[in-house]
Amino acid sequence: MPNQRSRSSSAKHAEIDIPQWLRKLPKVELHLHLEGTIEPETLVALSRRHDADPLTLDAARKLYTYENFLGFLQAFKAVTERLQTPEDYELITYNMVRALAAQGVLHAEVYISFGILYFWRKVAVEPYVEAIERGRIRGEKDFGATIYWLIDAVRNFGPDEAARVFRKAAELRSHVPSIVGIGIGGDEARGPASLFKEHYAEARQAGLRLTAHAGESGGPLEGPRSIWGAINIGAERLGHCLAAQYDPHLMEVLAEKQIPIELNVTSNIRTGCCTSFADHPVRNYFDSGLMVTLNSDDPPMFGSDLLGEYILAHREYGFSLDHMRELAANAVEASFLPPARKLALLQQVEQYD
Question: Do the strands 261-263 and 237-240 form a parallel or antiparallel pair, or are they unpaired?
């Protein structure tokens, strides 16, 4: 027999303003890149700081228009190359927290790419981390959403450079407790997870939590291998994981072990990693018992923030409001928050109606 909540939720469906209901639903985001949160309006502000001929808002918006993955990379570079000073990072952090809070996000765990600083800027990361922290603290005070940082290494730069990034994360964590974990992104084919096994073990020993982008691309053969590799080096959460659908045994393991999956539906479509919304495995994963979470990846780049992803899931994949509450609870459970905060947030999600 369906419970009272299920009956009442079904009865209310026709009366509810769904986007507004989803906006107020307490949410947690687990897969978001700081450098990918720069809105066109913020880009204009950065351009005024650094460009001899500053961008207009229309010109800035055009930079976010592209047709394929190469176009996305070019757009990302055009936007992030205007991140030049610590103050720029403070600005984008503060604006990110404001945008998250406006969507009903209570907590987010956000990737920072030290590679942009180490390899593009050739600078020490400490002044930038201090600036990011200033932006985080001001944002949390003004808007209420809390932030944890995940330090991301570019896997195709190799394990030695990843070790440098992870060790810096461990060093900073001693006085920047909002740095909670590490991850690897970049080209999976050029940087298989097995290369990073020792460095993940070292990071775990240092008290850092472990994530990994895995199976975003690679198709039916290489994609599942990448996911297996991430599991084998101890990743506690898996970003994207599109290719799991091609390996029935992998699907069984993910469901049995309840390894959280950070899905990014619109991102996968816009980058071409998935051909269409109809082909995306989000509903199949959920129905197969995987621990699915919804995320936005690089919101302005893909034209959809976390609230947009929740609306999309309800509209395109038939997730009920009870399902949406379950997805929100999954993200809380998969977060790296301490148990007491998790329990408080789970109660908020459960009691929301």
Answer: parallel
Helix (H/G/I), strand (E/B), else coil: 18: helix
Burial class (CB in 10 A: 0-12, 13-18, 19+), 275: exposed
Task: Give percent of the chain above pLDDT 70.
Answer: 95
Beta bridge partners of 113: 152
Q: What letter would DSSP give residue 1?
A: -
Q: Which two structure tokens, joined as six digits, stand for 194?
A: 């097995």
CA separation for the pair 166, 158 (Å, rounded): 13
pTM, 2 dp:
0.94
Q: Residues 55-78: pLDDT tens digits?
A: 999 999 999 998 887 788 888 888
Residues belonging to the chain: 353
Cβ count within 10 A of residue 25: 21
- pLDDT tens-digit series, residues 165-203: 999 999 999 999 999 999 999 889 899 999 999 999 999
Distance CA 166, CA 150 (A): 10
Active-site residue list: 216
CA distance 195 to 71: 29
The β-bridge partners of 293 are 262
Report the CATH fold assignment for 17-38+83-351: TIM Barrel (3.20.20)
Burial of 202 (0-12, 13-18, 19+ CB in 10 A): middle
Check: CB of residue 293 under 8 Å from CB of residue 250.
no
d(CA 151, CA 186): 13
Positive or negative, the CA dihedral 115, 118, 119, 121 is: positive
Distance CA 27, CA 309 (A): 11
- pLDDT at 339 exceeding the cut of 60: yes
